[in-house]
Design goal:
21% helix, 4 helices, Purple Acid Phosphatase, chain A, domain 2, 200 residues, alpha/beta, 6-stranded mixed beta sheet, 5-stranded mixed beta sheet
């Protein structure tokens, strides 16, 4: 199974997303201010050829947040039409691989037996420039997934292995020192870097 990992696209329509089985977006895709922007972002993701598309909310997915509160059935229909599975502290199993998505700023509780954890927020001290969550780090290290994928901190993109767990910061912004605080911005600097591709 080939995973393609992206995060923090911030309304950008990227043309060079690699082919794979599962597209994982770690949040901050839907950063526009109205339903037209949300529909446009969903159309872009929906047109990508990946069989499965998993998404967790980020701090800038405000339009999606509003729509989920105001029009839940409509949003579920739009997500479904785009082939997107929105994980909000929930799991999905694909060909025997169990994925768990952590909703933005939720209380972290990860069930046993999870292979891949997806979160917008990184774990503290791991590809986070000091901005991650200590509580999340403790829970992830205890859960021992094969992969942990996050974004949020634009200047901390990377891949490391800790205690046998592969950690990825999947932000697509080119790493630079000034970008470490770019999580407070609605923009991403172009050109972006290539997404991570992981074969399980």
């Amino acid at each position: 199974m080939r995973l393609v990992l992206i995060s923090d696209t911030h309304d950008q329509r990227l043309s060079d997303i690699p082919i794979g089985d599962v597209l994982i977006h770690c949040g901050d895709a839907f950063c526009g201010d109205d339903m037209a922007s949300l529909r446009s972002d969903l159309a872009w993701i929906g047109a990508l050829p990946h069989r499965w598309k998993l998404f967790v909310r980020g701090n800038h997915d405000l339009c999606l947040d509003w729509a989920l509160r105001a029009h839940p059935p409509m949003v579920e229909k739009l997500l479904g039409a785009a082939g997107i599975t929105l994980l909000r502290d929930s799991d999905v199993e694909i060909e025997g691989v169990k994925f768990h998505g952590i909703d933005w700023q939720s209380r972290v509780a990860i069930p046993r037996g999870v292979d891949v954890i997806i979160s917008h927020e990184p774990c503290y001290g791991i590809l986070d420039a000091g901005l991650g969550s200590p509580a999340l780090g403790r829970v992830v290290l205890s859960a021992r997934p094969r992969l942990f994928i996050s974004g949020h901190v634009h200047g901390a993109r990377g891949h490391v292995v800790r205690d046998g767990i592969h950690f990825y910061n999947a932000t697509l912004e080119s790493a630079n020192a000034g970008a470490a605080v770019a999580a407070s911005s609605h923009t991403v600097t172009l050109p972006t870097v290539s997404p991570w591709v992981v074969d399980l």
